[in-house]
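Box 3.1. Reading complex inputs
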Amino acid sequence: MAVITIDKVSRWFGNVVAVNDVSMSIGPGVTGLLGPNGAGKSTLIHLMSGFLAPSSGAVTLDGVPIWRNQAVYRAIGLVPERESMYDHLTGWEFVLANAELHGLAEPGAAAERALALVEMEYAQERQTGTYSKGMKQRVKMASALVHDPSVLLLDEPFNGMDPRQRLHLMELLRRFGADGRTVLFSSHILEEVEQLARHIEVVVAGRHAASGDFRKIRRLMTDRPHRYLVRSSDDRRLAAALIADGSTAGIELDFHERALRIEAINFQGFTTLLPKVAKQAGIRLYTVSPADESLESVFSYLVAS
Amino acid sequence: MNVTVARLTVRGLLGRRRGILLLVVPAVLLAISVFARNSSADKHDLAVNILGTLSLGTLVPILGLVVGTGVISTEIDDGSIVYLLAKPLPRWKIITTKLAVAVVTTWLFAAVPTLLAGLIIYGTQDTLAIAFTLAALVAGTAYSAVFLLLGVVTRHAVVAGLAYALVWESLVGNFVKGAKTLSIQQWGLSLAKSVAAHGTIDATVAVGVAVPLLIAVTVAATVFASVKLAGFTMTAED
């Protein structure tokens, strides 16, 4: 069983705090590291993969410190976010080199197995510089898997992948998780994380915002007050009809925008109520747009709650 | 030494026309040598000038710089060094392997042309050709180690290296006498003086000082580079 433990870890770069007093424990199965861009996901992955020293606190793998400890790479496979990977080598040469660098007894067999796992044998004789983003990602995966690690860390692995490649990678990661490996991947897309990870760690602005089952976090995200901007044929009458219902907390008539600003408490309730009320009153809806659906606002709500 | 690291380094260094570019400067040296051989000027002075200034003073440091930084800084810049470092591989092994590649390349592209140039201009007289070749070998080794270290510690390795080679060794060294004591070029020259026939080469640093300094600088740079690489830090882009 491989468990990565982050214990009261902070990391700052000069005056900028990238990770602020975070504690979490990543065990077997698939864990999603979710957060908006710039939240500190990559910093956390660098800390977990031994490429960054914590400014304070400790990052360990099964109790052993990771920083400045090359032996941990026998257990860890890392798929970095950056794309460059010896572009002049073919896929086969690249994965084989990784197997050799691990000092494996049969590097050729290991490279073959890893390339088969990510279904890249068909392009293994091509230079990696000619690969598409998805293909690069898969060969990077193969290089990280070549020594059969018990921990797999992936930094934004779905970036630049087409839907088919995405599904394939998800299936692969799911299988690793089911095998009892510790798989951690970062993403800024909720749906991606939701599809793959049972367990989610959310970071926002360097802080650990939430941790646990994805359903719980999903509920937290959907239950927050939602703000909408609505334009209709009769804003005042619509406002009066809506405020009578319990799912609406407040309505403002925005003269400047010539629109209603509505704060809904119950997301589900409000989305079914609005069209119903409008229809009954004979009011036409011109615009219904969520005013705060950006991931950042969702996340900042999570941090506040 | 790690064979895989060496293979990756050699391909990165000499692959894709880069190897051909490295041949340009030695080719110029050889062309000038042929020209000098056919000139009517004093051959001894020509040989000392060409081998001392052009070869040891320019070719060796420039190649040491390009090769010494080139064996590692490209990988650090584009991030592919991660694939070497995320392995249970002692960092000193990565550094010594890369240093070995850099040293052998510098020898091939700088010391061998120096020998050829010496032979073309002055034959085997006064062991001048051998002396400057020896200087190129030892200076090439020290330059490789120092510039490899620069490649590890700074993203501006080439600029820092040029500043050392051009500003310190050539410019300051010419005006301030003390600066010559701390110049790889002068250490090499001092070794050349001790090998060549008496009175044929001038050197300001005593060979008893030059040799320990050459060894100390090469070893220290290698050790320091290994330590720095062990603490290699990735900066987050997010």
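In summary: The interface with chain B takes residues 13, 18, 37-43, 46, 49-53, 68, 70-74, 76-78, 80-82, 84-86, 88-89, 97-98, 100-103, 143-144 of chain A (CB under 8 Å).
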